[in-house]
Prior knowledge:
- By secondary structure, the protein is an all-alpha fold.
- Helix 1 (2-17) crosses helix 7.
- The protein has one domain (2-236).
- The chain has 13 helices and no strands.
- The longest helix is centred in the middle third of the chain and has 28 residues, at 130-157.
Amino acid sequence: MKKIWVIAKKELKSFFDSLMAYIMIIVFLGFSGFFTWLYGGDVFFVNQATLQSFFGIAYWTLFFFIPALTMKLIAEEKKTGTIELLLTKPITDWHVVTGKFFATLLLIAITLALTIPYYITISKIGPVDHGAVLSGYLGLLLMSAAYISIGIFASSITNNQIISFLLALLIGLFFHIIFGVLSENFTGFLGEIFNYLSLSSHFESISRGVIDSKDIIYFLSIIFLGLFLSEANLSKRNIVK
C-alpha cells in the first residue's frame, strides 16, 4: 500500500504542476455553479432546497472531464519510454495502475469537496435531505471511480493521448447512455441485463438516497475490471520482449 501511495502522490503532484488540476477545478466549479444557481433547472427554478440540479450537471461534466484527466496517465509514459524506467523500480504493474487510479480519484474528491459551500448555502435556504445529499456525493465518487478505471484502461492500450481520450469516451458512452436506451427498447431478460449494465440507473438510485448493495457491487466490478485489464495490458510488454 505504501508503494501505491507514493505513486499516487507523485501523480497528484504532476496534475498540479501541469496546471491540469487547476484548470479542471476552475472549469468544473464555474460550469456546475452556473447551472446549479443561475440557469435552467437551478435551485431557484425548482423552488426546493435540493442539490439534485448540481448532481445532474456534475454527472455529465465529469463524464467528459475524466477521460481528459486519464488520457495521458499511461499513454504518455509509454510514448516517452518513462513507463519502462518506472517499472525498473521495485514496484509491480498493479502498483502503477492503482497508484494512478487513486491520484485521479483524489483530484476528483478535492474538486467535489470544493462544492461543499453549495451544500451549506442550500441548507440555509430551506430544509435539506442530508442523506440524499451525502448519497449524491457518494454516487458521483463511485461514478468517477468507474470512469477513471475505464480511462486508465483506454490509456494502457495506446501511446496516443487523443486516441485514449476518444476510446474512453466511446466505452463510457455505452455505460452512460447506450445501455440505458437499449434497456428501454428490449423487454424480458435482455432488457434487465441492459438496465443493469446502465450506469445511469445505478447512479440515479444512489443519488436519490437509496444505497443498495447491488449498486455498490456494480461500481466496484467496473473499477476492478478496468484496473485488472489495465494491468494485463502493461504486463503484455514482458511477453512481447
